[in-house]
Amino acid sequence: MESNGTKSKKNTILRVIKAVFLILVFFFLGKYFYDNWDTIKNLDIKPDIGIFIGSMLLYFAYKFTLASLWHYITRVYKAEIKYPDAVRSYLYSILGKYIPGKVFMLAARVPAYERAGVPVRKVAVSFLLENLCTLLGAGFLFLISLLFFPNDVLSDYMPAVIIFIVLFFVCIHPKILNFFLRIIGKLIKKNDMEIDFSYLQMLKIVVLFIGNWMIVGTGFYMLASSIYPLPVSELLFVGGVYGLSAIIGIISIFAPSGIGVREGIMVLGLSLIMPSEYAVIIGVVSRLWATVAELILVLGAFIAEKVGGHKKK
């Protein structure tokens, strides 16, 4: 058992780490808004408030569902903790995306699982699976959106798109995933990194992620429509643009939350269906849209934890 002195020292170190973490988050957030303040200040838009609020509610639903999917992955992988604690740890970890590198998102989830006796490597594998499913979900949405591309450029490449969709469902087979997990396990000298999911379980998880990407894709379409009117026929294409921007943002590990990278992809994609000046505005507003929603969710998780702790006392 740990002595009181050891526990006190450990708690002090954790408090310092949390403080440094929050300082880094607000530094990079502040830097982004400082660098883009002139653009934000000069935004000349009159959005449809009703549609905009609807888009924000869908973003809340998307993030809360992602937290639930994270818990579902840990449950299937036999690394779960209580649902409220899992959701809270996920929401807190959102702040980690605003620091370059994805390791801070993982680090923010570890303490809650360590307290419940879950090995860090199981949390890490669950985190890897979650990010993989996020990429796959966004990728599938993008592939489907190509079928609705707003001009004839891709008409000759439709067979290739369909082949990629088929390959998508082949690549999620647990045997393929375990091949790469075994390699990682050898590198860190752990032999229990593999997942024992069936193909149907993996397929179910990825389909759930695809469904969740449809939620946020619809939310982004509503956000864009609140600024520049778009027909419903453009919904899948606009959602696919958002999915592609998310993929590039996740891959760009040194850009905090994909800042700058995601917006650039959005502008390129949206410029195909609207004047470029509106595409730029939507790109900037989308960052505010997501950041404000995420900070509200983190604040809500913090308040819920404090209220819950007070009631227990």
Question: Characteristics of this structure?
Answer:
single chain, 313 residues, mainly alpha, 12 helices
What this model shows, in words?
The protein contains twelve helices and no strands. The two termini are 25 Å apart. The chain is mainly alpha-helical and 313 residues long. The model has no long low-confidence stretch (mean pLDDT 80). It has one domain (47-312). The protein is 76% helix and 0% strand.
Count of the domains: 1
Order of helices and strands: HHHHHHHHHHHH
* DSSP summary, beta strand count: 0
Overall, the morphology is globular
Can you describe this structure in just a few lines?
The chain has 313 residues and is mainly α. It is 76% helix and 0% strand.
Topology (elements, then pairings):
Blueprint: H1 4-35, H2 37-41, H3 49-76, H4 83-93, H5 103-115, H6 120-146, H7 158-171, H8 174-188, H9 199-227, H10 235-251, H11 261-270, H12 276-312
Helix pairs in contact: 3-4, 3-6, 3-9, 3-12, 4-5, 4-12, 5-6, 6-7, 6-9, 6-10, 9-10, 9-12, 10-11, 11-12
